[in-house]
């Protein structure tokens, strides 16, 4: 089967040395070719920027040539001057083309969230605001596809930055993002004479994004493949070809045992070494019935990425409930 792969989450590229994310890939059997990517943003402070959306908002401002606004917008952030310096000098600010970071930037620019209690929280709150507001027309002049086939969302981020109504800004961000991705993917599909596309990565947990692309691409006679039996993220593990009762689990996060007293530096160094060597850890499936080669299973390994604050969890659930994103309680 030949198809064009839509946006995907952050991962290591074919050379295994540089982070990818927001890629447009072409698959032909076992062959994979990168056709394009999202325009990159810098991560001021490295991984910390992925936990603090205001930093990604600052990165978007700097990309748009509006770095002078960082000090006025985020004057109450003690690190605002340091972040501006990182972005100006490119020091401790690696680039990322991850779709999730553009969501974080939008959330930071709209004032939805300065810091996250758990991964993806800013994007989830942004989705909830958009659902609560309802659909708005996309603005097609707020994105660009460059000659290098990069999808640039800078103008969209700057339009969001001037919006005083966070709910409208969130709805506009989603609507325009769907239009931008649809045009980007359609161009590639037409150039390669393809009729099937697939969407994968954590951002396809976003219902607005998924259903919007499904409808838009469908109207253009393109069939969109989506994850059904397993999530579109790296939460799914596959049994090996020999049919042994074990699974390979990609070591892609800084997993620390809940009761661990281990020092952080060795854990982080080990993680990076694993990524460079593309090492996978084996997990026993001895308690899983009828596992066959090619089956997918969900594995919970009992690790915690962050400490979840109970009050923050309650506020988040209340936001989801207000936005209608939670199922009704059983009667």
Would you summarize the structure shown here?
This protein has helices at residues 53-63, 69-73, 80-89, 99-110, 121-133, 154-161, 166-192, 207-219, 264-277, 310-323; strands spanning 2-5, 11-12, 19-20, 23-28, 31-38, 41-42, 95-96, 144-145, 150-152, 196-198, 223-225, 236-239, 246-250, 256-257, 280-284, 296-298, 303-304. With 331 residues, the chain is α+β, with helices and mostly antiparallel strands.
Specify Rg, calculated over alpha carbons.
20 Å
Strand line-up across the major sheet: 8-9-5-4-1-10-11
- Structural class given helices, strands, pairing? alpha+beta
- Give the class-level CATH name of the largest domain: Alpha Beta
**CATH superfamily name of the largest domain?**
ATPase, nucleotide binding domain
Task: Give the beta-strand count.
Answer: 17
Percent in helix: 25-40%
Largest sheet: 7 strands, mixed
Count of separate DSSP helical elements:
10
- Please, what is the average pLDDT? 79
Number of domains: 2
Weakly predicted, low-confidence segments: 1-12, 235-280, 301-305
Topology as H/E string? EEEEEEHHHEHHEEHHEHEEEEHEEEH
Return the CATH topology of the largest domain: Nucleotidyltransferase, domain 5
Roughly how many Å apart are the termini? 46 Å
Q: Characterize the overall form.
A: globular
CATH architecture assignment of the largest domain: 2-Layer Sandwich
Q: Strand share of the residues? A: 15-25%
